[in-house]
Amino acid sequence: MPVRLYNTLTQKIEDFVPATPGKVKLYVCGITVYDLAHAGHGRTYTTFDVLVRFLRARGFEVSHCQNVTDVDDKIVNRAKERGEEPLALSKRMGELAEEHLAAIGCMRPTSMPRVSTTIDGIVDLTQRLIQKGSAYVAETPHGKDVYYSVRSFPGYGKLSRRNLDDLRAGASERLAAGAVDVKKDPLDFALWKAAGPDGFGFDSPWGKGRPGWHIECSAMAFKELGEHIDIHGGGMDLVFPHHENEIAQSEACSGKELARFWMHGGFLEIDSEKMAKSLGNFVTIKDVLEKNDPEGYRYFVLGTHYRGPLSFDVEKHDDGRVTFPGLDEAERRMDYLYATRDALVSLADGSEPGEPNILQGQAEVVAGAKERVLEALDRDLNTPVALSVLAELGKAGNEIVMQAPKMKKDPAKHEAVRKLAASAVRALAAACAPLGLMQAEPEAYWKRTKARRLRLRGLAAADIDAKVAARTEARKAKDFAKADAIRKELAAVGVEVFDAADGSSWKITL
Hints:
Strand order of the largest sheet: 4-3-9-10
CATH superfamily of the largest domain: HUPs
CATH architecture of the largest domain: 3-Layer(aba) Sandwich
Number of helices: 17
Oligomer: single chain
Distance between the termini: 40 Å
Number of domains: 3
Strand content: 15-25%
Radius of gyration: 28 Å
Number of strands: 17
CATH class of the largest domain: Alpha Beta
Structural class: alpha/beta
C-alpha cells in the first residue's frame, strides 16, 4: 500500500511520492518564541514528529527542518514589557520550547534554523524579488519598507482558495491610517520593515530594519532544503496568510513549485475556541507536564485524527484543583500498556522470542501488530486506528499472561507461552515506535508517574509505606477490621494496595 496523505493544495488524499526516490524534504513552521509553548503547539509538533517517525519506518530518509522565529514584532513588544533584549528573550523561550517538546517525545529536527542567523538569506531573497518586479521599496516616516506585490503573482490564493477581489475589500476595511499611502495595494505584505522607534533591527540595503514574518520561512527553507521541497507543514491557522504568502514569494523568486504537499493540523480547542497565546486561553506544555505524564499527553493527542479539532477539557474542582480529564484517561491507558509490558517481561523471563503453535488468536495479533500500525499511518496518519492496534495488542498480551498458569503442568506448552510473551514484548515496542510511545524504560515511567501523583495529592511515600506495613501487621494478627479500614483510608486518597505471597505493594492511581 502506498503512503497516502491529505494535500491542502489539492484538497484531496493523494499518493505521496517524493521528488527524489527514497528521500523526503520536510519543512515545518516553528514557534514564534515570545512565550512558553502551549498544548496546541504540542499537538502540531507531535503530528509532524509521528510523520517523520512513520516515514523513516517505511524506509524513507527524511530531512526535517523546523525553524525558530526568534525575530518578530511580538518578541520585540514582549521584551520591551519585560525590560529585556529581544534576542535574549527569544533565546530563552526557544530553549524552553525545545525542552518541553522533547519532554513530550518530539525528536529534534534535522535542522532548526533561526531568523536571526538567516538575515543575509532574507535580504538576498528580498533583493531578488525586487529585481524580478515582484516587490518594491516604499518610503515610510520611519525609513524604508519593502513590500511584495500580491497582484504580480497570478497564482495567489491557490492554497487557501481565496479570491483576490474579496480579499482586497476586506483588507481595505482593516487598513490603518496612512497605510494606503505606503502600499500600492492593501493586500501587499511586508518583506522588510524599517526598525522604527524601538530601534531593533539589522543592517540592510534599505537601512536598519527587520524581516516580515512570511519571507523568513521562505529564506530558511531555501537555505536548508532548496527551492523545492516535498512536504510543507504547520497548523491550520497558517494556511492563510502565512503559507499563501510563502508560496507567492518563493515561487515568484525561483520559478519552481515550493512544495508538492501541504499538510495542516487541526486546532486544539478550549470551550470550542482555538487555543492560542493571542487569545489568552492557552495551557502551556509546562502546565501539562505539571499534572500529567508526557506520554499520556501524546496518547491523548494521537487519539484524534490530526486534521480534526481536538477538545482540551479543563476541570476546576471545589477544592481548587485543576485537572485535565482527557489527559487523565489517556494516562490510564499508558499505565495499562506499561503494566502489560511488565507482566509479559516477567513471564518471558529470558525466553527468546519465537513463533509457538499455541494461543493462535493472540499469536496472530502479536505477529501483525507493527505492520497494522504502519498500514493505519499509510492512510493519512490515521493515529486513532493505530492506537486501536495497540489496544488489541495490550488485550492479547494480558490474555497470554492469564493463560500461562494453566500451562504449567505441561512444560512444552508453558515454554511456548513464555516464547509468545517474549514476542509480544518485542511487538509492543515495534508497534509503539512509529507513534513515539513507550519510549521510557518501565522503571523510569513508574518512578516519574508515582512522584508526580504523590506531589499532586500532597502525599509522602514513607507515610504510605508505614500504613501498608501497619495493615500487614493487622492481617498477621487477624485484625481484619483494622486491615480493611487502612485499605479504605488509602483508597480514599487514591492509593491501591496489592497483596501477594511475598508481601503487599501499592500504587497511586489518577
